[in-house]
Amino acid sequence: MNRVVSLKKGSSLGDLVKDEQPRPDDDLRTRLHAMETKIRRMKEQRNSFNEDARRAADSRNALQEQSKEIRESIKDKLDEQKKVRDQAQICKARRDEIQKQIRELINQNRGRKDDAKGTKSVVIELSETINEIEKIENTMMTDGRLILETENKLLKKLKVLISKRDKLMPAVKDFEAINIDIGDMDGSIKLLKSEADKAHQEMIDFHKQADLIWEDVKPMLAERDFLRAEADRYHLAYVASRESANEVHENMKELISQVNEIRDEMKAAEEERVKVIKDHNQSVRDALKLPSEDEGMADSLASQLINSGSLTLGGVLTGDSKSPVSKNMRGKKQSRKLGTTRGKK
């Protein structure tokens, strides 16, 4: 027995099905809604982690910039201190050289000779070389008894001494050595001691100045270390936040993939449901059509009537199969005139 379904005006069979029966994808919709809600929460969480990472990176960069400025200041101070220390070393070398000269002069004054090769002071060596040069030049200028052979020997020796003097002069200049008078040993020793004490005091003063610079550097080093530690701490916070954000993002990607699968499944189910409803509605409309509304049925009935050999239009037409009309219909395809006929009274 066919079921009669009554539809409200403006409604379709699909609407009726929606009202009467639960949708087969309601569970999928519920899951989809829950997953979309979770994705929104995860997105907010990921954005929060990224924001924490950004703030940590900004703090780290600011601290690193401060640390860079401190390091540059420390470098300038250390360069200044190095220059002062170098000056102290120059004073120390000058003092040591003068003290070496003093020892040599004292030994010469006491009639001792320093047998250790290469231990003679540069200044002493230069002074002795200059004295020999002066003696040879004085001899060649004043002694008229010199023969050619002796004069040539003196010239060769003079050239050697001049060359030696020229080599010793830069060394004496580097140490800012004092010219001494070999003839006045005691006065020279006293002068050298005074210069040695002066160089020693200058060395001490330079070291004190370098120590003061170091006192200025120490708090800068402490501040540098603090800024570096803070920057490292913020960097670790940045890395941790980024890792958390990446982890949430990867979970989001997996969940989004599942959401897309559910949406595709729901879309396919919706398309299938729409097709079923559309086909059903079409079949119902076809079943409810009148014969006059069905062109296919009208054509089929016309063909059957033509083939049956009997047709009544507005009256009754009877005749056997041998009637001219039937013959005309079955035989040649000729046009026929249709009209109304009266039957026998």
TrEMBL record:
Bias type Basic and acidic residues, positions: 16-58
Coiled-coil regions, chain positions: 245-279
Keywords: Coiled coil
Disordered: annotated span: 1-68, 316-345
Listed Pfam families: DUF7121
Protein name as catalogued: Putative coiled-coil protein
The UniProt record lists the keyword Coiled coil: yes
Spans traversing the lipid bilayer: none
